[in-house]
Each structure stands twice: as structure tokens, then as C-alpha cells.
Write a structure and sequence with these properties.
The relative contact order is 0.18. Strand 2, helix 4 and strand 3 form a beta-alpha-beta unit. The longest helix is centred in the first third of the chain and has 16 residues. The radius of gyration is 22 Å and the shape is globular. It folds into two domains: 137 residues, Rossmann fold (3-Layer(aba) Sandwich), CATH 3.40.50; 212 residues, no CATH class. Helix 4 packs across helix 15, helix 6 crosses helix 8 and helix 17 crosses helix 18. The termini are far apart. It is an alpha/beta fold. The chain has 18 helices and 13 strands. It has a six-stranded mixed β-sheet with strand order 7-6-2-3-12-13, with helices on both faces. A five-stranded parallel β-sheet has the order 1-9-8-10-11, with helices on both faces.
């Protein structure tokens, strides 16, 4: 069930009865997309498997012999990719020699190259769910995988002859949760059936993996989501299957959305945490939580961790209901941190680190429309018109976009400002 509550409706000391009324009323008014049957392999995947000259087979041959070669590719919505990239470039949670979970003042991904694929041509992904075209979204994520495994891209989105070389990916991280629901099963099928050792990682899959490792008993999870993903059926389409994959069929979850508005500028992380827990207290189940998944990009994970710790250390009786919600084994999990952990674990087990003593590097690419694609429609900014973007039919083997190496010429100012604020390490490497 998805619960929707406006932050402006929540005030300190609000009666629990009022919260009940709001939560029930708004839940009843919300539109929860029904779970669709995603069973069956995509015809496009079958055709890729039949083509032994494709990039997936080339990658299989390369990394079977040289698992240390290749890069870490991060693909998805631009803002999500930048956040995950920043985490990969700065993470220091492990001793690089022993692998123990303790910092050693050397980045966990020392010597690695992170390729950031900003999917500017095909977002926002919610449009595919809104137009009942999840089939193309599944296929789109397969295209992203193949682009990451390919060794060619363009230097100029307006010149199809401007091909340049790039490195293959040995790990592909899908930075946006939509991939967890629409495409990861297809990607996994393609990699498994082609015997390609490349690892694909997704946000919800990684958070479930971490939740399983942390839980001392049956998992009970609250997902802090944004409205975009909640209404797109991301969780209802993925969470049950993810639980089955880890042998946690008895796990439970609920999804909650905190709407932001013009009245929330003075809201602290503490205010937002209490508002979120208030929603949980009036939900269908109030079993103590083993985890909260932060899947809302508007929530600061670091500030929310501080708020959680403050709650655990509190002693007031008025906060007792909130403290009792959190189990002894409770964890707060975010997509970027969990995917970095999964990536580190895979590279170590596969002995696929480069073993170079150097700071991680970053290279940025973006998707751009194929301006020569027959029948493509464009808006005034040179992007796909919504009708064409979300109306593309699957199984045509052509996604109508190209992967382009980023340069200052094509980098939007708004995205540059976002990167400078939210990902200073990534920004410094790019500017340099």
C-alpha cells in the first residue's frame, strides 16, 4: 500500500486521530498502479543472444580472461547517476588490503574508472508507466547494458560519423529504481544465458541484499519514496520478486510518500523523520521496522542518519512510540551506499579490481536523440517530443538514441550547478 501525506499537513504535536484520517483519506485517493506480469523473455533479448558478435559476447570473452580490465558504468537519470558516481569516487568503508569494513584513508575504488551515463534522451522514466509502455522501458534498460559493454560512442550528437573509443564495463550499475522493476530481470537473463561475467546492480536489489544481511529476524521495511516512483508501480512490480530471490518470502514492506510544498523550507531532518514515522504509526501494520529504504532524492541521507541517532538517544516519554518502531537491528539504507557495497563485494570476490594505486577517475557520457531516426519527433530544445519518447514500440532493435562523450559544449548549466552542489568530487574531476 502507498500512503500519501503532505508535509504541510503535519505539525508538531498533531493528534494521532487526525493523522489517521489524513492517511486513510489520502491513501484511498491515491492511484496505485496494478502489478503487471513481466514474465517471459523479451524478443529483443532473444535476438541479442542469437548474435554471437554482439557486445555482450565480446565482454564475456574479455573478462573471462582478464577480469581486472574494464570500468564501472553507472546508467540512468542524470541526477541519480551523479549521486551514485560521487559515492563511488569518495567511499572509504573498507581496508583495501584485507577487505575488512574499516576505513584506510584510501578510496575503496582506488585505481578504478567510473563511466557516468546520463540518460538525458529518455527521461523521466515515469512517462513510460503513465503511458502503459513499460515494455519499451524494459528494452531500454537492455540497450543501456549493451551501450555500457560496447567500445564505441559518438563525440558529437549531430554527427553519426564522429565515433570514438571507450572502455567496456565490467560492472553496470543502474542508478534509478525504475530499472529494478522494468528491465533488471531481462538484463540478468541476457548476462546469464550469454555466460557473461559482467555484474548488473540495481538500487532496490542492493538495498534488499543489505537488509537481509543486517536483519536478525523477518524483515519489515518502510520505503521512503517519491511520488514519481510510487505511482509508477516500481515497488509493487519488484519487491515481491526481490524477496523471493533472497529467500525472504515472509518479508513485509510498505511504501510512503511525503509531499513537499512551499511551506517546508524550514523543515528540519528531524521534522521530516517524525512526519514519516507518524505515517507509519497510522498504517496497516505497525510492527517494529528492520529497515527504512530512502528512495527519495529530496531526502538527505546523512542528515536523516543523524536524526535517527538523535531519536535512539532520546529519553522523553513523548518520543517512546517512535523509538519503539525501530528494532534493535534497524538500519537506514540508501541506494547509492548499498550499490557501492555490492559493487565492492563483487569486484573483490571476482578479483576484478585493477589493483592500481591511484585515485578513482571519472568519465561522463550522455544519451542524445538520433536526429536521423525516421519519424522521430522533437521539441524546441532538440529533445524527443513526449509523444515520440513514450510511444516508441519495443522489439524494433533500435532505441533511436546514441551514447555521446560529454564535453562543455553539451553539458547543461543546470546540471553543472547540480553537480557542483551535490557531487563536488565528481565536479572537480570533470572540470579538471
Amino acid at each position: 500500500m502507498v500512503h500519501f501525506v503532505s508535509m504541510s499537513c503535519i505539525r508538531s504535536g498533531m493528534k494521532l486521530q487526525l493523522l489517521v484520517v489524513l492517511a486513510v483519506a489520502l491513501t484511498a485517493a491515491s492511484c496505485s498502479r496494478e502489478v503487471r506480469d513481466h514474465a517471459g523473455i523479451l524478443p529483443y533479448v532473444e535476438r541479442v543472444l542469437a548474435d554471437t558478435s554482439s557486445s555482450v559476447y565480446a565482454s564475456s570473452r574479455q573478462f573471462s580472461a582478464h577480469p581486472e580490465k574494464g570500468v564501472i558504468a553507472v546508467v540512468g537519470r542524470a541526477e541519480d547517476v551523479i549521486r551514485v558516481t560521487e559515492t563511488l569516487l569518495t567511499a572509504d568503508n573498507h581496508d583495501n588490503i584485507s577487505g575488512r569494513r574499516e576505513p584506510d584513508l584510501l578510496p575503496d575504488f582506488a585505481g578504478e574508472t567510473v563511466q557516468s551515463f546520463l540518460d538525458m534522451a529518455n527521461t523521466p522514466y515515469s512517462g513510460y508507466a503513465d503511458n502503459a509502455n513499460e515494455l519499451f522501458l524494459r528494452e531500454l534498460n537492455v540497450h543501456h547494458l549493451l551501450s555500457a559493454l560496447d567500445t564505441v560512442c559518438l563525440a558529437n550528437p549531430y554527427d553519426s560519423a564522429s565515433a570514438v573509443r571507450k572502455m567496456r564495463a565490467k560492472v553496470v550499475i543502474f542508478a534509478t529504481s525504475y530499472a529494478s522493476a522494468y528491465g533488471m530481470a531481462d538484463v540478468d537473463t541476457l548476462l546469464r544465458r550469454s555466460a557473461c561475467p559482467v555484474r548488473a546492480i540495481s538500487p532496490l536489489g542492493s538495498m534488499v541484499n543489505q537488509a537481509v544481511r543486517s536483519a536478525a529476524g523477518p524483515m519489515n521495511i518502510a520505503i521512503w519514496a517519491d511520488n514519481d516512483k510510487a505511482r509508477g508501480g516500481v515497488y509493487s512490480s519488484s519487491m515481491p520478486a526481490l524477496f523471493r530471490e533472497v529467500g525472504a518470502e515472509n518479508a513485509e514492506y510498505q511504501t510512503f510518500v511525503l509531499y513537499e510544498d512551499e511551506f517546508t523550507s524550514d523543515r528540519t531532518a528531524w521534522d521530516r523523520l517524525i512526519a514519516f514515522l507518524d505515517m507509519y504509526l497510522v498504517s496497516d501494520s505497525v510492527k517494529p521496522l528492520s529497515a527504512i529504504f530512502i528512495d527519495d532524492p529530496n531526502v538527505s541521507v546523512s542528515l536523516m542518519r543523524d536524526a535517527i541517532e538523535a531519536l535512539k538517544l532520546s529519553t522523553g516519554d513523548d518520543l517512546l512510540p517512535y523509538r519503539n518502531i525501530l528494532r534493535e537491528d534497524f538500519v537506514l539504507l540508501d541506494p547509492a551506499g548499498c550499490m557501492a557495497e555490492d559493487c565492492y563485494s563483487y569486484l573483490r570476490k571476482a578479483d576484478a579490481f585493477t589493483h592500481k594505486v591511484a585515485y578513482p577517475e571519472n568519465m561522463i557520457y550522455f544519451t542524445a536523440p538520433d536526429y536521423d531516426y525516421p519519424g522521430a519527433g522533437f521539441d524546441s530544445d532538440g529533445q524527443f517530443a513526449p509523444a515520440f519518447r513514450y510511444g516508441r514500440a519495443a522489439s524494433r532493435d533500435e532505441a533511436a538514441f546514441n551514447l555521446v562523450k560529454m564535453s562543455d559544449r553539451f553539458f547543461p548549466d543546470s546540471l553543472m550547478q547540480f553537480m557542483e552542489t551535490e557531487a563536488p568530487k565528481t565536479f572537480s574531476l570533470y572540470v579538471r
